[in-house]
């Protein structure tokens, strides 16, 4: 055992002399390198006194804690820590530029020494450590990683705050226009590279001889040491700096757009060059995105013009709203065209700006009432473009307007709500013949279907196909029926597929005999020709009733419910609500709105048992009498009974 202890002491003494010389001179000759390599190899590979090789499996050191390689591993670690204590002592008295320069120089020298020691301990790394990783649960680092870990703990950790301050002060001086020497710039950049190297891994290529100049494989992504020391503090400092700059210099996109784009472009270009000059490449993209977010997505400097926002909220007009939204979109596109070099950063932020602008601008219908969502406003805008009764927009102008809807819809959050409103409004246009034409409806569908849910375009196409097919069926029926019957009025039918339309559930209604004859005839015709069952949906029907009981003749335009109620008075002048319900064979719910409309127009009057007028909200009483107002007068010849009720 004494011989073994003497061998260990001699080996450690020779190793200590070589490492001390290496740390002092920062250079090692090939002869000295191979000499130390041989000493370590012989020490680790020589047999133990128990007859086995001194590995982790040595019988005299089953736990591996006192084996020769383990002792050597600890001795190298001790020698490194001794040297690093001197490094910390030397750096602790430095500040500012001197600290940055000194840190890099000492790190560069230490990194060379760590690589040299790692190469000289190649046998220890590739044999004993490999065995330990297989037999122990604890992780064992290579010699190079031990050196890096010691530097991080013993040197970097105590000096991290001072180093961060020194680097940020240098960059701040550059930002403020102060002169920064080339030597200082070079020192900062090399220090940054050194911080990245602290998280790198050294890998020897198979077949290459060991040596301090071996190539290393660096992890060039954002290292944790660099992130905590420079990256995160630098981004926070940049945010503070430019927030103050915006307030001080009044940088805002609400000024002339061209001037603002130029300001932002110059600023971003300068920061990109500064980042390339001082920092690691992994900081550039987060910095650019941070600045773009600050300059574009700043609540105090929004790209949505104040005047446009105010216009969008005037009365909830769909056209005004969409026009104002499009102004914001067009403004964003002009900004992108002006900053081509940084488009990828601007594109993300401008999309976020426009998304927020669009989805957070719900508009009040009236003061103090519910609001109209952006989805409903866009659907109403489409309805206004494609609905008869409005100023027609045709040709290129219509296509441009429909294309705008498709582009805006990309950013709409609640597309399900848009689909609901758009489908409902489309059904009304098609059912009541208010659409400018199927070709325009198809054009809009092609522009919005990519942003809508799966199957939505199929539902709309089914509705459009139903309208075309219904027109043909109605024309064929009218031609066949007219040969043998004379109705005395126009009659047309729309045969729609069940489930393809957003219609309410049909409710029963006893149609007057004057209106029932063509319905019965069409049912028989359709079932005979197509073998399909028909269910009438009367709330969506339309009738024109010509009157001759008033002082003037009027044409009343309403639904089948309006016609059925009025035709009750062919046989009498007044009926109770109960009697009307019995005659029509329907429930009170569907009948309430048509009855209220007739009462508020004055065509019908509600009276109680004493003959006094009853407020229309009380007509739900089954005993209330409803009588025909023979004294009814109106300035209009045509009266629309389907207009919405207003109090």
TrEMBL record:
A GO biological process held by the record: ubiquitin-dependent protein catabolic process
Domain named Cullin family profile: residues: 373-599
Pfam family, one: Cullin
One example GO MF annotation: ubiquitin protein ligase binding
InterPro entries from the UniProt entry: Cullin (IPR045093), Cullin-like_AB (IPR059120), Cullin_homology (IPR016158), Cullin_homology_sf (IPR036317), Cullin_N (IPR001373), Cullin_repeat-like_dom_sf (IPR016159)
PANTHER family cross-referenced by the UniProt entry: CULLIN (PTHR11932)
Record family assignment: Belongs to the cullin family.
Name of the featured protein: Cullin-1
